[in-house]
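Risk register update: the risk that structure generation would not scale has been downgraded. Supporting records follow, first protein first.
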Amino acid sequence: MTSAVRDLFGGAITARAPTTLIDASDLRQVPDTQEVFLYPDSSASIIVEVLQRVERTYFDDAIRFHFNSLAHDNDAQASTVTNVSVIPNDRAGDQTPSTIILSGVQSVAKFNRATLDEVRVLMALYRVESKGIDLVVTFNVPTSTSEDSGAVKSEQWMVIESDFKTFVTSLQIVDFGLFA
């Protein structure tokens, strides 16, 4: 799949992403604090969100807070964190914070259905301490749905997982004035 550097928030942030992604703002209203992209061949989505920094000292606690907030917002019946790690930013001259990565699963009842959808969540957190900001990137990947429409198959999952790694390791905050 072809990828290219994409401007986010008017170019204040850049990241490498698949060229086939659909910008959700072309389809519906998206808050100014978010960038939302949709995969054209599934219900998988990417959300980049500028949030107020949470008062958690340890990186593990901070990203788990955001994951649990997402589970709450999604009315998840169950949620499990499977892994948390850190990818240091070792790019010379780049002030983008190191990336805290989380993978997990949430069981969510979509559209008031009785059957739960399984959604794999890949999340990255960039803590911009000097600005009091947490920049959160979330890939929501439904792997089983009650109607099996839009569910990501195993071969698609591997591609999306690779897209996530490329996106979060290439993400660069170009203009910290975005967080003023």
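Supporting record for the second protein:
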Amino acid sequence: MNNLRRLDLNLLVTLDVLLTEHNVTRAAERLNLSQPSVSVHLAKLREIFGDPLLLPGPRGMRPTARAEGLREPLRLALEALEQAVAPASPFDPGAATDIWRIAASDYGESAILLPTLAGLRRAAPGTRIAVVEMVPSRIARQAEQGDIDLALHTVEGSPPNLRRRTLFNERYVLAGRAGHPSLKRRPTLEQFCALDQVIVSPGGGGFQGATDQALARHGLERRVVLSVPHFLFLRSVLESTDLVAMLPERLVQGSAALQVVDAPLEIPGYAMAMLWHERCHRDPAHQWLREQIVNAM
């Protein structure tokens, strides 16, 4: 490292050209420098390496043994540096083999990833997606460490240090099995509170949510008889029992197995967003992935 601190990258570029041309005048022309400037560079290089590097010969200059030993590693090093500082290549989805890791709940999987997947597979068949468990308290750390590329999360509660793009606004509807006798029309508040209901409690074991808070403002309570951690199981419960549930609308759209009506009171919805770290914000592959998700929404 001490040796590197003494070096100016321009000197190494000059040395590379001199080792190719064996002539100060031709090297100056290639470098678009004056001949005296190249001679000054050569003098500095000789001092740094403690070697004459290039000696006068019958047909220009000939490299010393030390210079010959530098030729190949110097060329490789400069090529690597050139590649490192070159502009990012355009992303080619058809040839891509990226693996993307996305943190999502089962809601995010169904409402966001599922609609995105078919188009993603068509456009980039060589890529792979790993869906990892969504743990809100870990999102920022996982993104910072590169353990995840994206997180699908509500806008509310998103880590403030991550990039964010809102995808859509979600609303709640009341759902039960197809043909449910209590859902032939929108129930009254009294009828709604009398229904046996199921709730999703992501943390597990909870029997209250946004609906209960809205009811409490009216001095009312509902009958929550089942609490589950995942939406997928909840849908199975609704399809096979007379239980009903307040569900995000995107989870039940187009389902022939479920009857859906508006609830008798307005329940605050939420906005869904994708989150990512600054480290991958300008990466062409990551930009393409984000755009695919936005288009699918």
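The first strand starts at residue 54 and ends at 57. On this basis the risk owner (M.S.) recommends closing the item.
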